Task: inverse folding
């Protein structure tokens, strides 16, 4: 399977306001694909559609060859939400072992996941007593414990220090080398260069679906921040020209 995710003409609305406009894109299997854009641009809404928990207006989302959210995907897709989704009255290790047990895995898999997110020293602390950044990492450990074929991560590095952010990105690429596909959202453009492929989004519009190198080449700059701004301007100009023609 060349693509883990195939999205065709996806439209999502909240009330009368459209959140995503005719979204068509793909995520290659075995890649670390970044979904980047400002806060409020529609990243979380798109990720919810990929995992099958978002009501859509039209279009299709196919994940690992199945409709998003369908039964065959339940043990193949891991999802990390922005809000930590772990039990505050359990320790880090207990949370990881509980989620591992849901997949029929033992304590070794749980302990490995806890180490991979840098929480080995805090494994016996109650999640409710952790800092916000540590709690987010505890959630990440539970999301990666089963090494899912598709891992959807919503802002996984927010609130983490630079050293840990670097370690997490190394882990993301290691998971990809082991066969997982990762879709990682961020509003920090300096993380774009860490991805194999980029989906750049602004105000519900997909303005780029390409490699970081191709995005730089298209925008005519090596700075990905500047590249994003230029592509936004290009998109706005095209929209204005279409309105004039209409």
Result:
């Amino acid at each position: 399977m060349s693509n883990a995710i195939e999205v065709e003409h996806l439209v999502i609305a909240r009330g009368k306001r459209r959140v995503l406009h005719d979204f068509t894109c793909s995520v290659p299997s075995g890649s670390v694909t970044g979904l980047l854009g400002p806060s409020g641009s529609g990243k979380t809404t798109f990720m919810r559609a990929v995992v099958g928990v978002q009501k859509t207006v039209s279009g299709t989302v196919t994940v690992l060859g199945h409709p998003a959210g369908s039964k065959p995907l339940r043990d193949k897709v891991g999802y990390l939400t922005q809000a930590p989704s772990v039990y505050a009255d359990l320790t880090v290790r207990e949370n990881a072992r509980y989620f591992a047990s849901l997949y029929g895995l033992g304590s070794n898999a749980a302990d490995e996941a806890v180490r991979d997110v840098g929480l080995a020293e805090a494994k016996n602390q109650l999640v409710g007593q952790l800092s916000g950044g540590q709690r987010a990492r505890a959630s990440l450990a539970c999301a990666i414990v089963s090494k899912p074929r598709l891992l959807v991560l919503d802002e996984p590095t927010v609130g983490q220090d630079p050293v840990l952010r670097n370690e997490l990105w190394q882990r993301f690429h290691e998971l990809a080398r082991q066969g997982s596909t990762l879709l990682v959202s961020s509003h920090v453009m300096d993380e774009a260069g860490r991805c194999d492929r980029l989906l750049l989004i602004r105000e519900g519009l997909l303005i780029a679906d390409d490699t970081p190198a191709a995005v730089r080449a298209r925008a005519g700059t090596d700075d990905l921040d500047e590249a994003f701004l230029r592509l936004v301007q290009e998109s706005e100009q095209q929209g204005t020209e279409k309105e004039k023609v209409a």
